[in-house]
Design goal:
8-stranded parallel sheet; alpha+beta; disordered N terminus; single chain; 9-stranded antiparallel sheet
Length: 714
């Protein structure tokens, strides 16, 4: 302690001497850094009562004082040590139970500057504060996990005996149809078409997923439902036997194109028979066990804002009417035990009361009336617990249209707090990922969701920069291609909504079931599947831009999540065209090999899971950034133009020693890619790179940490 105090006092004396000599420094903005990673907040996920170490990095010999300032505390940080071009300042705070927002105030040459989440605040700018929530953590396995989204009907057909049969029942006025040609593209009205993908098919492809490098599967809904997408849940208690297993398979099909599903005896047997339901649940258990044995987690899709008109609580189609062990649905009877689960406008409309509230007015999607039914709240919370508990052991939930649940913002937040409590009590390692567009900070305060599907701080800015396309392919803005300023501003703004633990497991997707395939966005065609003849979604695509985007995905903070088939070159405009089948036997083998290499790189470097991120440099068609800690620095540079360029990347900002070298670990360009290492010198803190057209380069530096242990003099 005496030596450390001597160092601090000696350094302060040196600063005083500097001012006497008139040597007032200019604040080095690029060197200033703090975030919510373990190196700057330790522990990064503290419990109430913990002593937390806060750290700030500055340029060496550049500042006078550093203070941490929150709503209730103002405390000076002490000089800790020097490393290379930087000084580190630190302090310790014992925290209570309340969440805290804080910034760092930097004093240099008599001028105060404020450091927040987006970096140093400009004059007149309100800094975005860091946030710390005692007791909040996200599962460690989910941080940086490589996830894989499966739309089950379109992935792999493992058990033909469970296929939906032609005319088995009617859905949205259409007889359901089994598509015989696996490679046939979806029709414009596709909701009643089924290709036969199932859980047995996923089970058979688990080794494929393991070989690809996948660490978690996110399934689109698996529960009983009449549609191929299954976002209109019919029974939350069971896996759909069309995805699962059939023990009993009896009864007639719905004949003659009829619409009265009370006569769809085969369908009624398949989806209401207890033996079928229980066998399907057991198959799911087996699938989870086999996935876990391969190190692969399983995330379920929870559609809790609304259900389907087929749902046993509503039963508009009479699926459950008069069947043993099922109560009357709310559509059928005013005395139904589920009447309070829905809002009915006409209180005298029974039987067959169609005046219920539908989500966005869709009568096939009855909105659940949580505020009017404690029983409904309890039931859904029991569903949330059930599937993350033995024997099912799912590893988390993705929550559909989560901000829409309920009829008020206050109730919405109250419900998700209860949901989190129940899920985490049942399985502390379960992850909770919400679908949300826009600022999710009100739900990411540590007491509701763990994280979100990352549209604002990933899919949107990434898509505009690399393709100039809107994520549905509904617009093309050429000026946004390669606009690094717009990219950095968007990222800086959107990332401010996340606490560190949430950002590291945010679901980062290039494509998914609601948007056009990323590869299709590279052709700059605006429109949807019905607007074009032939397979326009596959014409004029640019695999080089796709490879750039994948390398961005694998090096950006969050959980890189592949949408099934993206790795094999699947194309498609937005829903339903983006829901094409996986092209088994017709894969783009080059793109598949590329994905394997990119995923392997991501998994090999721990800094890509939990490391800090900072922007390094940018220009037209060019961005560079770093993922780093004090042991390893990864630098990524992208040239999204059709011409080569030479750039000097200021890698010193990420902590790379100013006179050293970096190793290229990945490069992709217009024609191919390579993982062969190549060494590049670092001179004066800069790396000079020649970037080929439409290329991406990833560099790595690993260094031994040596701290200065002597006074500094000017």
């Amino acid at each position: 302690m005496q030596k450390e105090e001597h160092l601090r006092c000696s350094s302060q004396a040196a600063r005083n001497n500097r001012y006497v000599m008139g040597m007032v420094p200019t604040l080095n903005r690029a060197a200033l850094f703090a975030d919510e990673s373990e190196e700057y907040v330790s522990p990064p996920e503290p419990s109430p009562g913990d002593t937390v170490t806060f750290r700030v990095r500055t340029a060496r010999d550049n500042v006078d004082e550093v203070w941490i300032v929150s709503e209730h505390r103002r405390q000076r940080l002490d000089y800790e040590k020097s490393e290379g071009a930087f000084d580190y300042y630190t302090t310790q705070v014992t925290i209570g139970r309340d969440s805290a927002s804080y910034t760092f105030h930097i004093f240099s040459g008599g001028i105060r500057s404020v450091l927040g989440k987006g970096g140093l605040a400009d004059e007149g700018e309100e800094p975005v504060p860091f946030r710390l929530c005692p007791g909040f953590s996200t599962p460690d396995w989910a941080k940086g996990a490589v996830m894989y989204q499966i739309y089950t009907d379109r992935f792999f057909r493992g058990d033909p005996s469970t296929d939906v049969l032609d005319g088995e029942y009617s859905y949205m006025g259409l007889p359901v149809h089994h598509v015989e040609d696996w490679y046939q593209r979806p029709e414009c009205m596709d909701v009643a078409n089924f290709y036969g993908g199932d859980l047995e098919g996923v089970r058979r492809k688990l080794d494929y997923l393991k070989d690809l490098g996948i660490e978690a599967i996110y399934f689109n809904p698996l529960f009983v439902s009449p549609s191929n997408h299954k976002y209109d849940t019919q029974d939350y208690d069971h896996i759909d036997p069309h995805f699962g297993a059939l023990v009993r398979d009896e009864g007639n099909l719905l004949e003659g194109g009829g619409r009265d599903n009370t006569h769809a005896q085969r369908y009624l047997c398949r989806v209401t028979d207890r033996e079928n339901l229980e066998a399907s649940d057991r198959l799911f258990c087996t699938l989870v066990e086999e996935a876990h044995a391969r190190g692969i987690r399983v995330i379920l899709d929870g559609v809790f804002n609304h259900c389907g008109s087929f749902n046993k609580w509503m039963d508009r189609d009479g699926i459950y009417s008069g069947r043993e062990a099922y109560e009357d649905g709310a559509y059928r009877s005013a005395s139904s035990p589920y009447r309070s689960y829905f809002r009915f406008e006409n209180e005298d409309g029974w039987p067959d009361n169609g005046s219920y509230e539908g989500w966005w007015g869709y009568d096939t999607l009855p909105k659940l009336n949580y505020e009017g039914s404690e029983a409904l709240c309890s039931y859904i919370l029991s569903v949330a617990r059930k599937w993350v508990s033995p024997p099912y052991n799912a590893d988390g939930w993705r929550l559909d249209v989560a901000a829409d649940l309920g009829h008020s913002e206050a109730f919405n937040h109250r419900f998700w707090k209860a949901f989190r409590h129940e899920v985490k009590a049942a399985n502390p390692n379960a992850v909770i990922i919400a679908e949300h567009y826009g600022d999710a900070s009100a739900w990411l305060a540590g007491d509701q969701w763990d994280t979100v599907m990352n549209y604002d701080a990933f899919m949107e800015p990434m898509t505009w920069f690399f393709t100039g396309m809107e994520k549905h392919s509904d617009a093309f803005i050429p000026e946004l291609i390669g606009d690094s300023g717009s990219f950095f501003r968007s990222m800086k703004h959107a990332m401010g909504a996340f606490m560190g633990p949430s950002l590291l497991c945010a679901m980062n997707q290039l494509s998914n079931h609601d948007h056009s395939r990323f590869l299709t966005r590279t052709n700059h065609l605006v429109g949807r599947v019905g607007d074009f003849a032939g397979d326009a979604a596959s014409e004029g695509v640019d695999p080089a831009v796709m490879r750039e985007a994948v390398l961005f995905q694998m090096t950006w903070p969050g959980a890189p999540t592949l949408y099934y088939g993206d790795e094999a070159g699947v194309t498609g405009f937005t829903d339903p065209d983006c829901r094409r089948t996986y092209p088994w036997g017709r894969e783009d083998t080059q793109l598949l090999s590329f994905h394997k290499d990119a995923i392997a790189m991501h998994k090999e470097h721990a800094v890509l899971r939990k490391g800090s991120v900072c922007f390094l440099d940018g220009g037209q068609d060019y961005i560079s950034y770093a993922r780093f800690n004090r042991k390893e620095q990864i630098v990524c540079a992208f040239n999204n133009s059709g011409s080569s360029m030479d750039v000097s990347v200021p890698v010193w900002i990420a902590g790379v020693p100013k006179e050293s070298e970096m190793t290229r670990i990945f490069v992709s360009d217009e024609t191919s890619w390579s993982i062969e290492p190549e060494t590049f010198p670092v001179q004066g803190g800069m790396v000079r790179l020649h970037l080929a057209p439409k290329s991406a380069v990833v560099l790595s530096a690993v260094k031994k940490v040596r701290f200065a242990q002597k006074p500094r003099w000017w």
